[in-house]
């Protein structure tokens, strides 16, 4: 299931695949991720023609459409640099499902090659950059919500918390049932809105009960969901993408 | 088609949304499931403790894959060995035929009373209703199944059938249906059920059970249980009929210990169940108890169709432990009846479409956030999330078309929306213009975005896209190279 | 075509072609390498965790332990075999006690209600035990039929310490189960139980409420083993 990944030394350059949710709703998170990478002395290449990894169509069963969209992304990374994605969901799509999607097609080899180069952002910061952080923020209690794709599909339950634990003034609190899904699930939230709402309701309650003033996540889908629920409740808990949080507290 | 009845109303997978709505609005149901699932998840985790869980799961998957690879040969071997041991083997194409076979066995013995051990296949084929139509009473003897039957319901979980009921509700059921005095004492209620059911075991003409593993090399039927009702059912009545799906066969006896270890731990977090009952023949000459006749009914009911396809095949690895539902955040919220199928939860959502067709079950493959918890705990490593996506493909007509009802969910409107998405996402210049005028993006989202905002504020497209921000960012500063790494 | 032939034909003429069968590595369910002492401790810990009661005794003095257990539990009618040494020795030891011995070597049809309603306990031998799970291994015989370990409220099982194996897999392999299975083979781990009423454990739902294991050690006297 979780592939064993052998991590390369820190490269000179990386490709950055921003994802459509970041592009459209949380562009600052994308830029902060780029800044974090640049601060490590890495040149960040942002292929201008990137759009979406194709996952929404893929998980909705629209296989041909997903394949067409994914195929368009495959040609964006011609050199052998790692591809950093600030999302476990899109990262999981590219690493796990691209090879399945193109199996038996003429793009199979390229899909496999691209998949091998895909890193989720926190994974890359921890395992390749060996990032060291110097916290300049004020004391705060924070809960981390690791997306299900990062946790299960990519096997990255620990990288987000590992980064947060370097922030000296941040107290990382663990919400009850931390590993349980927040209820986003892409089109699940709109196909089964009531079930999804019950799930996000429990998630926000757990974060509040843990005493967190803020939740941090590495996936914008979860942020949109959990944050949107908090906002509607007019709860004081704020959500932030981990890239922005790390950049903000250490710059 | 097959609909599940209850005292309250009829459950059907077609009504998933309505049933989910009702369950979500029922605090008792919510609390009962949450408490039970939390307990089961904790117990499972603890029970594997120092075990090499991943190695064991690997072996479990491997044993099941081997059995499926040799399935036709193993079924023939099982049949030959059972027959040699004196067990009569029957084959049924579907549930209807299996019901008929069992009814005829009952009738040939003039049976009027059947006692049943837990069998999900018998639920799948609606055996009780079939027998009752023929004037044969079928009584469930597993305590949970007994309670559910008294309450005129169907099981809400494949391992813990009465998990949707709490102590007070059960007390009321026993009082109303059997005259047992109301009590909150579980031992008292259990003792009452014991005495009621013992009388029935003694008087039953036929015992019907399921099978957990059927061993081809020895012709042995293995039953896993805690209560002892399975042993009663398979030992006390003069005739025993075991009914099972054709996929339950394993090759060797030595394949059983790993699967049994996985099953008991995954299902209820027990390191072992109270009884492991292995039946290889009817009562032999000189033996003093046990049934004089044992029958095995092998049921296909869509399984051989699943078997045709390399990807769907994995569905048949299932050993029916229920761990996927115990860990499913959707099942935990809505409970088992909401699915309206014999098998609820993630395994139900990948199995039911084959048994009932996608027309009936089209809402089930989407009733998952694809969080992956089911696949993570599955003791035989069924890639449940991948299979859910596969069935979504079949639903919208972009799969192989080999699942009954394929394409049923495709609508012109939705297909056009995804084609639109495809066009935009493969035309980067248009994408950049489109996203920078973000309002238009809404048109791409599935039509029901409205409901999102019942529970959450709407996501607000940012004033500037990442594309634009990056452009500005790159223009504002010189290219970073190694020498000015500390520039900041 | 019969259902049988039609099903087998579909399975054989599989659309995606024949499947290849993987080999299995069973290392994870064997080779525990426990000492006799470790086996004993594990067996006892696990069977106790599921409400099984272990009474240590010796090969020589075990019937005294049996008599004490029966007296403590108020057993008046005990069902047991005749030929197996366990049954024979028990009969000899109990002949002058209050306990009435109930013969089980008769067809159940002749005494079903009696067995269900007026037998307090069943005594059986065992063929061995499993340390990893705290399980007893029984192959019922005409001398000790299937139901005496199930129907009476108390099941007293006699287990020799030196017959413990590490795992179920070891039992199946070492004792060559695949070469010939009996009518009924049983593993028993504790008394009958259910958690079907709101996850609350209750014992004796259908089968015995109590399981007592008389664990016989080769040499030492009862009470001073280990």
Automatic annotation (TrEMBL), chain A:
The gene is lutA_1. Residues 14-95, 142-226 form the Cysteine-rich domain. This is Lactate utilization protein A. It comes from Halomonas lysinitropha. GO terms for cellular component: cytosol. GO terms for molecular function: oxidoreductase activity.
TrEMBL record, chain B:
GO terms for biological process: lactate metabolic process. Residues 309-338 form the 4Fe-4S ferredoxin-type domain. InterPro entries: 4Fe4S_Fe-S-bd, 4Fe4S_Fe_S_CS, FTHF_cligase-like_sf, Helical_ferredxn, LUD_dom, LutB/LldF, LutB_C, NagB/RpiA_transferase-like. Keywords: 4Fe-4S, Electron transport, Iron, Iron-sulfur, Metal-binding, Repeat, Transport. GO terms for molecular function: 4 iron, 4 sulfur cluster binding; metal ion binding. This is Lactate utilization protein B. It comes from Halomonas lysinitropha.
UniProtKB/TrEMBL annotation, chain C:
Residues 87-114 form a coiled coil. This is Lactate utilization protein C. SUPFAM superfamilies: NagB/RpiA/CoA transferase-like. The keyword Cytoplasm does not apply. Pfam families: LUD_dom. The lineage of its organism: Bacteria, Pseudomonadati, Pseudomonadota, Gammaproteobacteria, Oceanospirillales. It comes from Halomonas lysinitropha. Residues 40-215 form the LUD domain. It comes from the Bacteria. Keywords: Coiled coil.
């Amino acid at each position: 299931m979780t592939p064993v990944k052998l991590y390369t030394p820190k490269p000179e350059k990386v490709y950055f695949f921003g994802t459509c949710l970041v592009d459209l709703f949380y562009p600052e998170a994308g830029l902060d991720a780029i800044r974090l990478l640049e601060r490590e002395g890495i040149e960040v290449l942002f292929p201008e023609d990137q759009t979406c990894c194709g996952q929404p169509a893929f998980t909705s069963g629209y296989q041909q459409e997903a394949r067409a969209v994914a195929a368009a992304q495959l040609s964006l990374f011609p050199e052998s640099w790692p591809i950093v994605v600030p999302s476990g969901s899109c990262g999981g799509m590219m690493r796990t499902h691209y090879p399945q999607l193109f199996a038996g097609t003429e793009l199979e080899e390229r899909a496999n090659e691209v998949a091998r180069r895909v890193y989720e952002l926190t994974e890359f910061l921890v395992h390749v950059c060996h990032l060291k952080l110097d916290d300049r923020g004020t004391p705060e209690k924070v809960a981390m919500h690791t997306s299900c794709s990062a946790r299960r599909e990519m096997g990255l339950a620990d990288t987000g918390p590992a980064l947060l634990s370097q922030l000296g003034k941040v107290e990382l609190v663990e919400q009850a049932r931390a590993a349980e899904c927040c209820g986003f699930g892409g089109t699940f939230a709109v196909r089964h809105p009531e079930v999804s709402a019950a799930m996000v309701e429990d998630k926000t309650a757990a974060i509040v009960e843990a005493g967190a003033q803020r939740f941090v996540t590495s996936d914008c889908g979860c942020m949109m969901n959990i944050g949107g629920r908090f906002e509607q409740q007019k709860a004081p808990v704020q959500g932030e993408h981990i890239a922005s949080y790390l950049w903000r507290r250490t710059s | 088609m097959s609909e599940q009845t209850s005292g309250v109303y009829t459950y059907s997978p077609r009504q998933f949304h309505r049933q989910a709505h009702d369950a979500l609005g029922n605090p008792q149901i919510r609390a009962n499931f949450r408490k039970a699932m939390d307990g089961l998840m904790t117990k499972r985790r603890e029970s594997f403790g120092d075990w090499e869980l991943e190695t064991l799961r690997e072996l479990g998957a491997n044993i099941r894959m081997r059995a499926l690879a040799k399935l036709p040969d193993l079924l023939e071997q099982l049949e030959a060995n059972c027959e040699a041991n004196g067990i009569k083997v029957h084959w049924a194409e579907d549930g209807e035929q299996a019901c008929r076979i069992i009814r005829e066995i009952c009738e040939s013995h003039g049976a009027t009373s059947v006692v049943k051990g837990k069998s999900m296949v018998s639920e799948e084929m609606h055996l009780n209703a079939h027998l009752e139509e023929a004037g044969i009473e079928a009584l469930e003897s597993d305590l949970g199944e007994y309670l559910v039957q008294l309450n005129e319901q169907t099981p809400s979980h494949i391992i813990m059938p009465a998990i949707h009921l709490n102590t007070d509700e059960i007390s009321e059921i026993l009082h109303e249906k059997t005259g047992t005095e109301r009590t909150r004492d579980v031992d008292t209620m259990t003792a009452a059920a014991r005495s009621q059911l013992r009388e029935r075991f003694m008087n039953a003409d036929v015992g019907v059970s399921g099978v957990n593993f059927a061993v081809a090399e020895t012709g042995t039927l293995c039953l896993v249980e805690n209560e002892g009702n399975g042993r009663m059912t398979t030992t006390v009545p003069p005739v025993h009929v075991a009914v099972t799906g054709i996929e339950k066969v394993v090759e060797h006896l030595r394949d059983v210990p790993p699967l049994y270890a996985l099953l008991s731990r995954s299902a209820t977090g027990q390191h072992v169940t109270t009884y492991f009952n292995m039946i290889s023949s009817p009562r032999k000459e000189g033996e003093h108890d046990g049934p004089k006749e044992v029958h095995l009914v092998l049921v296909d009911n869509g399984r051989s169709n699943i078997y045709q396809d390399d990807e769907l095949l994995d569905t048949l690895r299932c050993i029916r432990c229920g761990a996927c539902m115990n860990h499913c955040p959707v099942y935990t919220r809505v409970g088992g009846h909401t699915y309206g199928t014999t098998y609820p939860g993630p395994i139900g959502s990948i199995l039911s479409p084959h048994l009932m067709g996608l027309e009936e079950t089209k809402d089930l493959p989407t009733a998952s956030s694809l969080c992956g918890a089911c696949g993570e705990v599955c003791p035989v490593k069924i890639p449940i999330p991948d299979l859910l996506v596969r069935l979504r493909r079949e639903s919208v007509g972009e799969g192989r078309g080999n699942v009954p009802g394929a394409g049923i969910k495709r609508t012109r409107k939705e297909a056009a929306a995804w084609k639109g998405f495809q066009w935009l996402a493969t035309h980067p210049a248009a994408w950049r213009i489109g996203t920078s005028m973000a309002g238009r993006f809404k048109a791409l989202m599935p039509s029901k975005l409205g409901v999102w905002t019942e529970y959450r504020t709407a996501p607000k497209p940012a004033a500037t896209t990442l594309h634009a921000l990056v452009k500005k960012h790159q223009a504002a500063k010189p290219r970073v190279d190694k020498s000015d790494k500390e520039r900041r | 075509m019969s259902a049988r032939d039609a099903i087998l034909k579909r399975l054989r003429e599989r659309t995606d072609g024949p499947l290849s069968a993987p080999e299995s590595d069973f290392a994870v369910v064997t080779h525990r390498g426990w000492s006799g002492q470790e086996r004993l401790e594990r067996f006892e810990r696990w069977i106790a965790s599921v409400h099984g009661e272990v009474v240590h005794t010796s090969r020589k003095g075990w019937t005294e332990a049996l008599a004490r257990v029966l007296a403590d539990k108020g057993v008046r009618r005990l069902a047991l075999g005749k030929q197996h040494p366990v049954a024979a020795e028990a009969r000899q030891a109990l002949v002058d006690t209050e306990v009435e011995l109930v013969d089980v070597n008769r067809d159940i049809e002749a005494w079903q209600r009696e067995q269900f309603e007026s037998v307090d306990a069943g005594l059986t031998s065992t063929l061995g035990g499993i340390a990893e799970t705290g399980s007893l291994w029984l192959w019922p015989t005409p001398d000790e039929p299937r139901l005496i370990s199930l129907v009476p409220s108390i099941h007293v099982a006699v287990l020799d310490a030196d017959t413990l194996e590490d795992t179920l897999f070891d039992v199946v392999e070492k004792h060559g189960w695949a070469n010939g299975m009996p009518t009924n083979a049983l593993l028993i781990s504790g008394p009958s139980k259910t958690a079907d009423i709101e996850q609350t454990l209750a014992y004796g739902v259908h089968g015995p409420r109590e399981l007592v294991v008389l664990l016989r050690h080769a040499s030492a006297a009862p009470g001073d083993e280990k």
